[in-house]
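FAQ
Q: What does a multi-component entry look like?
A: The components come first, one per line:
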Amino acid sequence: MATTPQGSTSTPAPMLDIRDLRVSFPTDDGVVHAVNGMDLTLARGETVGIVGESGSGKTVTSQALMGLFKDTSATVTGEIRLDGEDLVPLTEAQMRAYRGKKIAMIFQDPLSAMHPFYPVGAQIAEAYRVHNKVSKKAAAAVAVDMLGRVGIPDPARRYSSYPHEFSGGMRQRAMIAMALVCEPELLIADEPTTALDVTVQAQILDLLGELQSETGASVIMVTHDLGVVAEVCHQVVVMYGGECVEQATVADIFRDPRHPYTQGLLASMPSLAGKSERLAPIPGFPPSLLALPDGCLFADRCPQTHLVPDQACTTTRPTLTGGAGSASHPSRCHLTLTEPVREVAR
Amino acid sequence: MTGFLMRRFAAMIALLLVISFVTFSLFQLGPADPASAACGQECTPARVAEARVALGMDKPFLSQYVSYMSGLLDSRLVGAPGAQTVCEWPCLGKSFQTNEDVTAIIERALPYTLSVASGAIVLWTVVGVGLGLLAALRKDKFTDKLIVGAASVGVSLPIPVTGLLLLLVFVSTFDVLPFTTNEISSPFGEAGPGGWFLNYLLPWVALAVLFSAQYIRVTRGNMLETFGEDFMRTARSKGLSRPGIVFKHGARAGITPVVTMLGLDIGLLLGGAVLTEQIFSVPGIGFTAVRAAQAGDLPVTMAITMMAAFFIIVANVVVDAAYAVIDPRVRVS
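Then the predicted structure of the entire assembly, as tokens:
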């Protein structure tokens, strides 16, 4: 088994440990089960990618981490242990002390995520002042410094620019500055590069990597882009229908995808190497989160159900289990059960 | 900003010219004949013709219009040849009914309209925006439903109904408020601010019932829309407190459309609250306009129409300027 990059001898509590996280929303049509038993462990300074298509629950998971469902009609159960402390039972007021300070978030579309009426610098300074009792002037100086650190030229002048006066890449840099100004230990980046063009994407990912190694923060990279995962992540969690269907190191996911959905995702990814073939999309649609089937959530779209005996795919929900062998990693598929079974060691 | 205001000013002048011309034309096409009205009961065709000359209505239409409009630039002579009097600048003509300077008539009526408008605007803005914000914060709870329900009733109550009900209850039945008197036209008069306040309270409430209801609905709708914006989620993610999120981030964005509405309503109301002034017998601009239109008093009708148009156009410019102050995205560099 590969060790973590730190490879430390003692094992402190992981930065983040999510156990059986479930999020559901009551709607007029019934209860929507957006996240159905999500598990994730993230070590200090590491980056984990959460991958999945639209509606797989990755954004809901990240918002649950920020506690954004507190004081709403949504139900959140399970454990979210940040540095050993469970965030699920905290009240909105208690959670405020964590938001921005220990956990911060970068959003997909920085133009709509920033307030259109306030200068960019003031919004960064505001984020700093929420958690640091300093004068406006001191906070402004911190914000200018932060704008410089994220690579915005002439930060003192750009401090008073408005979001609409920035380019897309600059705005995302400013967004990163806003998220990192209090030096959070955990940074959640929700599709941070989706709204950007490819060259800017690479710059933003590089910047995130640099800042991460400077601050030692752990990062959750929420994305549907396996290319981003390959570039920046240590670990990957594949989500489908609100469940974690496979968790592995980046190398393992690309070398040995175990869940048929992961295999489908990889097959649907364009490759520059080799001759150009038609992409292989996964047929069908994700399950309705209103009425989840008893069996495997992917069974409808899975090309391998015939390999599993007794039609177990449509009758029994598989658990997240690891197969035998040194190169195995947990996945939620009956096919792994046909090999010698081993409960996921934690 | 200066260029922006200059352009708006030029457009304003052009628009006022068009409005004045249309009003003047409509009057000519209409059935009113001020000359026969002015000549009284024992009228002969000869005396009607005389009156027509005295009113200046014997001249061709365009020359009448040009001569009327010239009064806005300089003082001019009005009346029959030989019996002309000077109409000082700014001359809006003389009333066909009373031969009084229209400027003086408007100067007399305006304070009443300002009294009605000022208090009503403050009252409905405070009530409408306050309750709208409260309803948005308590969405789907009892408070919200109560406020929205009350607003639905409020928008369905026309001023004549509210006004008469208020008079019936507070003046006739319980006699707790005075009937509006035309002796009080400003808070600086003999009656003092208190007397002025009590005198205009009922007209304010009548207007505020209708307008607050609209402001509640618009404020609530806009605030709810704003609460769903991404930047509100960002504000929460920073760890801001709820008042900080709601007021600093939410209200600033959610209130912008209300500012537009308010500006236009102020402009509209300064041109005279016709129904309210009628019901409460307040001799303001609206009241005067109705009398003048009924009597075929062209100069007064013209003047009030132009003034109302002027206020609305100015309100538009002010709203645009205010928008630029509130929302940096519309700022003209």
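Q: Is there any commentary attached?
A: Sometimes. For this entry: Chain B has two domains: 2-100, 103-330.
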